[in-house]
């Protein structure tokens, strides 16, 4: 499960944790996160995220 980082604020989306505050269940891969999901820390769009190497 690959993590993704917000290019704006540095928040890391961890698929093992998901984002329960926004109805993204634990175990949700990045590709399955809704397109209108936003960074919980800064509100950046999903397109502002990059894979963590």
From the structure above, extract its key features:
three-stranded antiparallel sheet; 53 residues; 0% helix; single chain; mainly beta; globular
Structure report:
It is built from no helices and 3 strands. It is mainly β and 53 residues long. A 3-stranded antiparallel β-sheet has the order 2-1-3, with no helix packed on it.
Instruction: Tell me the number of helical segments per DSSP (H or I, 4 or more residues long).
Output: 0
User: How many beta-strand runs?
Assistant: 3
Residues in helices, as a percent range? under 10%
User: Which structural category fits the helices and strands?
Assistant: mainly beta
Strand content: 15-25%
User: Could you tell me the mean pLDDT?
Assistant: 97
Give the overall form: globular
Q: Describe the strand arrangement of the main beta sheet, using strand numbers.
A: 2-1-3
Q: What string, H for helix and E for strand, traces the elements in order?
A: EEE
Largest sheet: 3 strands, antiparallel
Determine the N-to-C terminus distance: 12 Å
Radius of gyration: 10 Å
Uncertain segments of ≥5 residues (pLDDT<50)? none
Write the layout of secondary structure elements.
Layout: E1 4-6, E2 12-13, E3 49-51
Antiparallel strand pairs: 1-2, 1-3
Short description:
Helix content is 0%, strand content 15%.
């Amino acid at each position: 499960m690959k993590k993704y980082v917000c290019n704006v604020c540095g928040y890391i989306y961890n698929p093992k944790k998901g984002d329960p505050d926004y109805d993204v269940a634990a175990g949700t891969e990045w590709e399955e996160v809704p397109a209108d999901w936003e960074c919980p820390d800064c509100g950046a769009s999903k397109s502002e995220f990059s894979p963590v190497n």
